[in-house]
Amino acid sequence: MAGGKKAEKPIVLSKRMQMLADMVTAGSRIADVGCDHAFLSVYLIQAGKCPKCLAMDVRRGPLSGAEEHIAAYGLGEYIETRLSDGLAAYRIGEAQTLVCSGMGGRLMKKILEEGGDKTRSFTELILQPQSEISEFRIFLREAGFLVTEEEAVYEEGKYYFAMKAVYAGQKKAMQQNKLSEVSEAAGQGMPLGSGEPEEHGMPLGSGGPEEQGMPLGSGEPGKHRMPLGSGGPEEQGMPLGSGEPGKHGMPLGSGGPEEQGMPLGSGEPGKHRMPLEPVEAGEQRGMPAGSVSPEQNAAPEKEPPAEKVLYDLYGEQLLRRKHPVLRQYLLNGVEIVEKIIAQLEGQDSPKGEIRLRELRQEKRQLEKALEFWGKGR
User: Fold this and answer.
1) Taking the CA atoms of the chain, what radius of gyration do you get in angstroms?
2) What DSSP character marks residue 369?
3) Which residues contact 4 (CB under 8 A, 6 or more apart)?
4) Residue 77: is it exposed, middle or buried by C-beta count within 10 angstroms (0-12/13-18/19+)?
5) Nearest Cα to Cα of residue 92 among 113, 62, 122
6) Secondary structure of 227-291 in the HEC alphabet?
7) What pLDDT, on the 0 to 100 scale, is given for residue 348?
8) pTM for the whole structure
9) Nearest to 145 by CA among 179, 103, 112
10) Calpha distance 127→360 (Å, rounded)
């Protein structure tokens, strides 16, 4: 045990929390933002993996519960608690590892952005967004972070995805991303970013973060100051996740987002708005086919390579490693999307037709990701 402590009551973590603990570099001091009951900090000290932990939460209630747990395990000397809205009360240099979990991707992004230099000062970030994961991956890349490790677990009917990121600076992160694109293009024997339909089987890469992202979820209500409409559990109607209080997972639901009280933009199979397939110019705007709208006169935006879109959606590390949990998630996703398509087919309405297009393209993306398991990569 760290510091020669004797643990009479070793704590057992859920699979989701154990995944986070395993990603922490041994010997580092951690700052756990949104610590809830400090189960992770207690485990890391008991296991001798970390010498000190700083457990922070925005609400006094959960923090008091954390203090009780820490006292019960006799670890007050090694775990400090602090009332903090995100990283507001953190001081640079107090820890090497930032752990942030149990909340939606948009809230997590807000915490990291508001942290500024504090966020960039950590040696590593262990992150587990519960929603909007694709958007969150894009944010990390554009903010200068490199994802060096990704993991996934399935627990109690939900999928959980975690990632380790390091700050490399915006220029280096974008350069690394470009190198990845060049490598992919060279391996496929086609020009960089060509995205030929024959190669990819679909017009991937046309969607921005709003199209490819996941719905805003949240950790424990009130754990952080969340603006109205930020997607706490009360607004989303999301079921509680793991055994730890206030933790939420990503259920693979069978209904559309309207049924679950979630906004459009979910990345769960069958729930997110995907870029539409090509149509005749002006068709969607109610203009005659072949007509050109003013915005079409502007220079077209360069679409990202197809595999980059897949990496943002499902995780480059997980796809390259052919992670078994991700494969299960993708297969389950295809099954769910097919069921929703079957329910919608035959409905003679413009809205239903648009939804069917989106679902069919989502199915193609799921199937394209599954090709990683069938190729000699």
Assistant:
1) 22
2) H
3) none
4) exposed
5) 122
6) CCCCCCHHHHCCCCCCCCCCCCCEECCCCCHHHHCCCCCCCCCCCCCCCCCCCCCCCCCCCCCCC
7) 82
8) 0.68
9) 112
10) 31
